[in-house]
C-alpha cells in the first residue's frame, strides 16, 4: 500500500520541485511565478495553523470562515441605512393611518375624557419613540482613546492592537473597539455601547408599548374592517366608496404590523431587561456563562462584579440618582450621560460597594 502511495506521490512532488526551481529564475513566466508564490504562502499559513501552540480546530475553522464573516459584515454595514429608512417609513405609515383613518372614527364614538386620555398617551409615547431612536442612531457608543498609555486595560485588542479596557469589545462591522459593547444593531446602523445603550433599550420598550397600544386599541376596528373586506366579492357587491376601501385595508395593515412588531420586539425587550437586571450585556452573558462553568469545575463560585442587585442595576443603567429622576430622566425625554466614562467601573454613589468577586474580562 505504501509503495503504491509513493508511486503516486513521487511524480507530483517532482513537478512541484520543478515549479519551485523555475520560480527562482527570472525567465520564469509571471503567471508561473505568481502560482509559486501563492503555493509558498499557503504552505506557510498551513504550517502556522499546525505548529502554533495557540492553534487548533477552532483556529482553522475561523480562518476558513473568514471570507464569510467579511461578506456578512459588509452586507450589514451597507444595509444599515436601508434598515433605518425602513424603520422610519413603517413608523411614519402607522402614524399617518392613525391620524387619517383611526382618528376620524374614534372622534365619532369616544367620549371627551377618553379622547383626552388617548391624545395625551399616544403623543407622549410617540415623542419618546422618536427621541430615543434619534439619540440611539446619532449618539456614538463610545470608543477607547488611542495613543494613551494611562488606560487601565485588561488586554490588547488583536485587531486594533490597542489597549482594551474592561467590558470593551471589538466590533467587526464598525472595525473598532466599543466601550461596554452589547451588540451591533443593523436597525440603528450603529453599535449599542456605553453611551447609547439606554436610548436603545428605551426605544425598544416604548416602541413595544406603542405597538401594543395600537393593536389593542384598534382590535374592534380591525374586526369590522376584516368583516367588510370579506363582503367585497359578494353578489351584489357592497357599496363601499374608494376611501372606505382604503380605510379597511389600512386598518388591517396597521393591526398586523403592530401585532407582529409587538411580539418580536417585545421578546427582544424582555431579553435585554433580564440582562440589565443581571448587570450584563449580550456579549458578557456568554463570557460569564463560560467563566461560571470553568470556576464551577474547580469548586469555586462566580460572581459578576458589575451586578449591584436588580434595583440598583436599573438605577445605574437609567442614570437615576434621586426619586424625581424617574420622571425627568425615564418618563420624559432626557439626554443625560450614563455613569462613568466606560473605561473604569467604580460603583456609582447611588449603590453600595459590592464585595470582591471574580470575572473573566
From TrEMBL:
What Enzyme Commission number(s) apply to this enzyme? 2.3.1.225
Q: Which UniProt keywords apply?
A: Acyltransferase, Membrane, Transferase, Transmembrane, Transmembrane helix
- Location(s) in or outside the cell: Membrane
Q: Give the reactions, separated by semicolons, that this protein catalyses.
A: L-cysteinyl-[protein] + hexadecanoyl-CoA = S-hexadecanoyl-L-cysteinyl-[protein] + CoA
Q: Which PROSITE patterns match?
A: DHHC
Work out whether the entry's keyword set contains NAD: no
Q: Does the keyword Metal-binding apply?
A: no
Q: Which residue ranges run through the membrane?
A: 75-103, 115-134, 200-219, 251-274
Q: Which residues form the Palmitoyltransferase DHHC domain?
A: 155-286
- Pfam families assigned to the protein according to its UniProt record, in alphabetical order: DHHC
Q: How does it sit in the membrane?
A: Multi-pass membrane protein
Family in the record:
Belongs to the DHHC palmitoyltransferase family.
Q: What is known of its domains?
A: The DHHC domain is required for palmitoyltransferase activity.
Record's protein name: Palmitoyltransferase
Question: What organism is this sequence from?
Answer: Echinops telfairi (Lesser hedgehog tenrec)
Amino acid at each position: 500500500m505504501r509503495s503504491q502511495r509513493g508511486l503516486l506521490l513521487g511524480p507530483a512532488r517532482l513537478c512541484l520541485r520543478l515549479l519551485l526551481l523555475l520560480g527562482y529564475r527570472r525567465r520564469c513566466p509571471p503567471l508561473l511565478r505568481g502560482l509559486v508564490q501563492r503555493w509558498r504562502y499557503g504552505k506557510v499559513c498551513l504550517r502556522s495553523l499546525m505548529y502554533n501552540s495557540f492553534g487548533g480546530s477552532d483556529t482553522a475553522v475561523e480562518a476558513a470562515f473568514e471570507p464569510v464573516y467579511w461578506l456578512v459584515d459588509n452586507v450589514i454595514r451597507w444595509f444599515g441605512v436601508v434598515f433605518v429608512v425602513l424603520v422610519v417609513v413603517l413608523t411614519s405609515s402607522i402614524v399617518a393611518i392613525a391620524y387619517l383613518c383611526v382618528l376620524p372614527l374614534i372622534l365619532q364614538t369616544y367620549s371627551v375624557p377618553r379622547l383626552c386620555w388617548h391624545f395625551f398617551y399616544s403623543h407622549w409615547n410617540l415623542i419618546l419613540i422618536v427621541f430615543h431612536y434619534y439619540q440611539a442612531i446619532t449618539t456614538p457608543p463610545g470608543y477607547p482613546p488611542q495613543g494613551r498609555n494611562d488606560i487601565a486595560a485588561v488586554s490588547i485588542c488583536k485587531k486594533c492592537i490597542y489597549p482594551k479596557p474592561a467590558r470593551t469589545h471589538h466590533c467587526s462591522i464598525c472595525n473598532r473597539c466599543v466601550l461596554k459593547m452589547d451588540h451591533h444593531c443593523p436597525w440603528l446602523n450603529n453599535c449599542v455601547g456605553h453611551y447609547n445603550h439606554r436610548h436603545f433599550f428605551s426605544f425598544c420598550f416604548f416602541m413595544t408599548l406603542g405597538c401594543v397600544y395600537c393593536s389593542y386599541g384598534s382590535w374592534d376596528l380591525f374586526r369590522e374592517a376584516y368583516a367588510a373586506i370579506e363582503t367585497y366579492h359578494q353578489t351584489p357587491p357592497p357599496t363601499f366608496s374608494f376611501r372606505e376601501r382604503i380605510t379597511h385595508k389600512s386598518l388591517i395593515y396597521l393591526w398586523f404590523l403592530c401585532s407582529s412588531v409587538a411580539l418580536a420586539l417585545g421578546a427582544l425587550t424582555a431579553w435585554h431587561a433580564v440582562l440589565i437586571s443581571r448587570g450584563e450585556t449580550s456579549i458578557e452573558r456568554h463570557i460569564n456563562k463560560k467563566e461560571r462553568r470553568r470556576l464551577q469545575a474547580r469548586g469555586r463560585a462566580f460572581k459578576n462584579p458589575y451586578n449591584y442587585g436588580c434595583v440598583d442595576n436599573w438605577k445605574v443603567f437609567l442614570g437615576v440618582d434621586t426619586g424625581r429622576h424617574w420622571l425627568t430622566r425615564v418618563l420624559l425625554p432626557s439626554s443625560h450621560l450614563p455613569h462613568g466614562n466606560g473605561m473604569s467601573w467604580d460603583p456609582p454613589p447611588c449603590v453600595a460597594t459590592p464585595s470582591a468577586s471574580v470575572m473573566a474580562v
